[in-house]
């Protein structure tokens, strides 16, 4: 199962947090900052999987003595992808397929790109409701329910029109947070090192 | 005034860089008032802003009631915000949740699919057992909704309901199964069901065997890779139960492996084959052999050097799963796996380490540990460099160059957690099976010495400083290393002198390297103090060690460490002073008096230490030494005429205290095998008023270190941390010299500090001095050509003749001959194993077994307090029992059987639920009736008093429970809730708290009612 889906930018500012188990706000923030520390120290060309952050490792899989079935309930895998200015993180248990999760993030970003047309970080900042809606079309309660792009986009559109970012925002320069077109360039692959032929 | 929209908030945040905190506080204040506003739009906007701020870490639990209000809005876009707020902010302790039951029921029955989706999607985040119980009946019909998207979401939500309320699954499973079996079902619904079944499957695989034919069908012609992956995972849990499945699965899986273009599916196929035990032995041997080699070769390809790092990682994951069942298959891949230890990617490294730990043997231990040590060394030097660099950056403000330096650096400093983990693994690998894999203990001692230097300091203990007498700080890694050294010293007699000298060196280094005003935090001190005390006779310089210990004792941080150090001081003292052969000369007398005075001076402050163990030992030794000092001063020194013996107290009594038996290592749990003497009653209190005494002891004032700390803080300058001088360029170009040979056999120079290497070389030289087969390294200046032949020729022909210039066929002696120690090291693994006796732990009786490891599990009450020497054991004993963060608890499902759907229990639960629902409905009708009655009475009063008919306004007031005290009507409204309770006490009792939910439901849905009341009032 998927335990959490997070999006934050290169400064560690959260853009989307979705925890599929209830968790105190302060602990959520600690977890985010721990993951951010891990993710921002990745060497280019590293794999898309993070070691468990201390918060999860302390109580989680480090005790190898617990039975194999118990392990399936414990978050044991942190997958991430980096697009332009944003990091997308999935925390999941061992019952998910690691490579499929990489694809799942890709589907999510592509869906956002379809919805916003050439999506960038600003779109996501100002429309975080749409972010939630899109995620809600893909994952419910930690279980993946849809991976088909058309259906996801249609599902989000059925809930109402998707707003574009405020028109003047782009021209004003937006206050400095670097925006990059994530869509085309970002999709070509993480850091340009390799192209992922998933699915 | 204008209210801020979410846009304004975000824009404002971006425009207030620097003083965001203040801005956010202002916004929160505004939101607090806006969310109380009666205007629903304003309320919803405020909530949206709060949700945004919550994402950034600002608590909004106080707003949970307002979340409910927005959830109950009639407008979809507001409702959506409300539900989002609930999902993001409700926690297990949010108490307004029980009021939401009826709202959720209502929305689940809505006619708009988008509205139905909201509660379905939110429920997994909110659900509690009671909520699950009451909503199950509303959720089940949604499984047959006309919209596929609602169906698939419902399936998942039912699964999450079942996690907290397993009975839900019993009711839902037949319907879910029906959906799964239906071949005309929307494929995305089927996929969602497969995902859920996969989650359920590993808990109770036997219940899902009957589905196998349908699942197989889906696998073969599903055409959906996502679903195929899940199906394969599911089958991997089913095959162990039904071996016949294997034959069926092999062809399609092999086919997939050979044809699929999707790497993820390929990987899961391989993983599934291995995990499902399909590789195991069976009748159709040749086919399986083929599959096995296919899988393993694919995995090997994934791990190999040039592969995509993601594939490397997942292949290691797969190996980690295989290694428990098929260790041989993994062992064959040792070469590629070992390469992964040196990967620059920490994730890959850790996974490789997990694997390697199980593959250690005496042949590869040296090289594996060598690799790890080299990493640690590089990281710790990089860290030191970076720390210097940071200081440097502060003044130069040349940010760019600093970053460049960092990126150029080959080894970025590793995180402390990783370092600790790796050190723990090194110790674990070496100490496995009572050091079965360690061939060369001198090497091991050197490794330990190096590790003590590398080990990161423990976390700051500022937090628990007030709980000073707390007996056991978590064993830090440095202590574990020290324990290893102590174990070697105790167990391996052959290398004891070396171990003792190593301990001596470490202690002197601790003393000199740590700043004298700072406390010593290295936990290694404790076991090392034991070693130098117990084996004082093997120290090279007991006097220096005693002096070092004396200066370390006042700075020891943990009371436990202190207690052990205290014990070692009189041992050392006894060795230094207790020589009964030496003459009792005036010099000896005066120097010993001085020494005793010094020891007493150090121990004296500790006589009042809050930790009893420390206090007791300190008091004992002080008194003993005072006596001895008296005796010594009373004994006249021998002169030329009269021979005087040293006082017997000094030469006999004190040494005899410590010289009884040799201490050997005792198996953990051996203590329990000691028979209890017949006369001993353990339940008898030691003292009749023990509790009183203890509480008295607790209330004793701790000695105030305040003065000292005050002094230290204000009057002593902290020693400057080394500021590197020299041109920056030197730090920029720091070529990693050892990288070149790092792929070869371990060169110890690359991970041991220079001084350790030098000592090692010297020792080796000494050892091989008389060995005719060993060609010593003549002089460092003439490396390369320092062969005996060369020397002879040079001597014969005189220095003028340049022998190298003579054109003979070049005999490359460098390559052929042995050129010094580094070459010799490489032959280590091939050396015949030294005959080293490693003593096993001592134990008593038979229950411990011969290895002496009487399992801690068999003795539940046993706390690993005295056996910190067994690092593995204490690790196991500390196995965390608490639930992990983010963990789903699906264990409840394990006890639920799905196969007997006709259990009487099942029908009963459903019946009971229906009964409860009926009761609830009846209660609601009753409440509604009473309410309407009151309303009518109320309106009659209003009309009678000539108040303009304002039904809607009244309702609103009631909702906010804000009462206007102008007329009697307000009081009626205020009392309403109480009155309802009073009038229907029987209902209130029978359905408990649900009445509250009902009342609030009335409050919430008052909007529609307001209209209805209005019309009624008009009729009147």
TrEMBL record, chain A:
One protein family per Pfam: Clat_adaptor_s
This protein's record includes keyword Cell division: no
Residues in AP complex mu/sigma subunit domain copies: 1-159
Gene3D superfamilies linked to this entry: 3.30.450.60
Keyword DNA-binding (UniProt): no
GO (cellular component) term, any one: endomembrane system
Superkingdom as given in the UniProt entry: Eukaryota
Coiled coil residues, start to end: none
Compartment(s): Endomembrane system
InterPro entries assigned to the protein according to its UniProt record, in alphabetical order: AP_complex_ssu (IPR016635), AP_mu_sigma_su (IPR022775), Longin-like_dom_sf (IPR011012)
GO annotation terms (biological process): intracellular protein transport
Keywords for the protein's UniProt record, in alphabetical order: Membrane, Protein transport, Transport
SUPFAM superfamilies in the record: SNARE-like
PANTHER family for the chain: ADAPTOR COMPLEXES SMALL SUBUNIT FAMILY (PTHR11753)
Family designation: Belongs to the adaptor complexes small subunit family.
Name of the featured protein: AP complex subunit sigma
Origin species: Triangularia setosa
Organism ancestry: Eukaryota, Fungi, Dikarya, Ascomycota, Pezizomycotina
From TrEMBL, chain B:
Subcellular location field: Endomembrane system; Golgi apparatus
Alphabetical list of Gene3D superfamilies matching this protein: Leucine-rich Repeat Variant
Composition bias, Polar residues: 778-789, 864-873
Composition bias type Basic and acidic residues, residue spans: 762-772
Keywords carried by this UniProt record: Coiled coil, Golgi apparatus, Membrane, Protein transport, Repeat, Transport
Primary location class: membrane
Region (Disordered): 385-412, 762-800, 842-882
Gene Ontology CC terms: AP-3 adaptor complex; endosome membrane; Golgi apparatus
Gene Ontology BP annotations: Golgi to vacuole transport; protein targeting to vacuole
Residue ranges that the Swiss-Prot or TrEMBL entry lists as coiled coil: 913-947
InterPro entries (UniProt xref): AP3_complex_dsu, ARM-like, ARM-type_fold, Clathrin/coatomer_adapt-like_N
Domain spans labelled Clathrin/coatomer adaptor adaptin-like N-terminal: 20-627
Complex and partners: Adaptor protein complex 3 (AP-3) is a heterotetramer.
Family designation: Belongs to the adaptor complexes large subunit family.
Function of the protein: Part of the AP-3 complex, an adaptor-related complex which is not clathrin-associated. The complex is associated with the Golgi region as well as more peripheral structures. It facilitates the budding of vesicles from the Golgi membrane.
Name of the featured protein: AP-3 complex subunit delta
Provenance organism: Triangularia setosa
Classification lineage: Eukaryota, Fungi, Dikarya, Ascomycota, Pezizomycotina
